[in-house]
Amino acid sequence: MRRLLALLVGLLILVALGYTQAAPIGGARLTLFDEKGKPLTDYGKVYYSIWTFDKNGSIEVLQKGTLTKNLLKSLIFPDNMIKLNLDTPRSIAKTKGSHTAFIGIDVWVVKDGKLYTFPPESFEVKVSKNTFAKNIMLKFNFKEARVKDLKALSSKASKIQPMAHDVYYVWETVEDKSYQHQKIPVLIVKNKAPSSISATIQMAYRGSYYLGPMVTVAFGDLISEKISFDPSSITVKALGRSVTKKYKASWIMDVSPYSSKYIWIKGTVHYIYQKEYLCTAWCYPTGNERYFVKIDSFDTDYYNGIYHIITGEASGEPPYDVPSRWIEQTGSVHNSKADIEDFYSEIYVGTSGESFNIGVPLGALIAFLNPETAPAWLDVIVAGFSLEDYVDYAVLGSVQSKNGNYLYFKGVKSAYEMKLPVKTWYGTTYRDTPVPIGFYIEVS
To answer: How far is CA 147 from the centre of its chain?
Structure first.
């Protein structure tokens, strides 16, 4: 009996020690699963790289490693778990004045002689340090992975360097550019009607939630060489927010008959191009590539506890926008007024859209600023906004006839689908859906 008790006590101590090791104070425990909840380590060896954006908005790797199935180890804590210290990303976020820190994770799985490269995942943590480790469950869908034959890759790499070293996988930055004080269109109105129009935009109108711009990534095989956008080979996905503060923006503009105007917000936009490499002593490109487009920060005036985003208007249409072949008009609203929210329910599929709201033409703006090296299709890519926990719409507004006449209002949506995060009772998942573009409204 005493031996049994001693054994049980010993096991409890081992579990407690394992829990402590797996639970860094103020850090996080990440567990990696497939889309059905099966541990990724059940499939084979898992490689991972965890990163954040540094104070300049560039990618900074925090931690790299591997996971393998281990029955003995799994008695103490799951073998698909990563222990993560969050001090560095929190410190970076604090220097930016952000309420939260962005964390990205790249995952590779070697299974049956194939290399599965998944699109990046992300999550955010508050800058205030938690007492207990934060539990984060991330799911990866094998249908979204880019698959490479490992033997073919290894053969190519061995021509450069004999495979005498451990193999690992990395994303390396090829190009990294940011542009400050840029005017980013958020509402574009083309008035074809004989009536004057009043248009308004409101971002985080309550001012009580933390607003942030979403990071968009485009991912695929040799996509830098494509001369046009191809949604069958380029995955476009919205990740978390690059920065969060109590931001707010609002503007009202009048649009004369048969003319166009747009409302803009001002901020710093960022573009990062990366290539994936298989590495031994030297590294060899696998062919997978990705592009990030994001807003690093907004130009603001700070008063009454709120960061008020610098906002204004301009005549005509923006000199950069998503190409017409990749946008579609919505059905029309026949009334004296149309709210932006009216279009959300028609455009979004499988989500109400709180995690993205409107898609501003960030790719088109960056392609306009960097025509020499930006890929030809980058002008298709848009980026959105969200409030914390997607509690409400981050962007609202309306367009209305000034004399009360009934008019036809049409919005614009993407002719391709993006992967957007959606919160459910069992965690965050993704939906493929068109997104609002511009937001562009035509009045007739």
So the answer is: 22
Pair 305, 261 in one domain: yes
Is 88 in the same domain as 211? no
Contacts of 185 (CB under 8 A, 6+ apart): 262, 263, 264, 318, 321, 360, 361, 438
Residues 351 and 404 in one domain: yes
Q: Do the beta carbons of residue 306 and residue 248 sit within 8 Å?
A: yes
Determine the Cα–Cα distance for residues 251 and 262; give it in Å rounded to an integer: 10
* Residue-level pLDDT at 158: 53
User: Distance between CA 297 and CA 241 in Å, rounded?
Assistant: 11
Nearest to 29 by CA among 53, 12, 15, 50: 50
Residue 184 and residue 139 share a domain: no
Report the distance separating Cα 322 and Cα 435, nearest Å.
12
Cα–Cα distances (Å) from 284 to 67, 173, 176, 226, 280, in that order, read 23, 14, 20, 21, 9
Q: Residues 6 or more apart from 240 whose CB is under 8 A from it?
A: 102, 103, 122, 123, 124, 214, 215, 421
CA distance 350 to 105: 25
| End-to-end Cα spacing for the chain | 86
Q: What is the pLDDT of residue 77?
A: 63
One domain, residues 189 and 311? yes
Q: Residue 377 phi/psi, 5° resolution?
A: -95, 0
434 vs 416: CA distance, rounded Å: 6
Q: Are residues 62 and 107 in the same domain?
A: yes
- How many Cα atoms sit within 13 Å of 13 on the Cβ side? 6
- Angstrom distances, CA of residue 323 to CA of 88, 216, 228, 364: 40, 18, 11, 9
Query: Tokens for 297?
Result: 């920060």
pLDDT of residue 17: 44
Residue ranges making up the domain that contains 6? 2-144
Amino acid 144: pLDDT: 95
Number of domains observed in the structure of the chain: 2
Q: Which positions of the chain have pLDDT values less than 70?
A: 1-24, 71-77, 131, 155-165, 207, 425-427
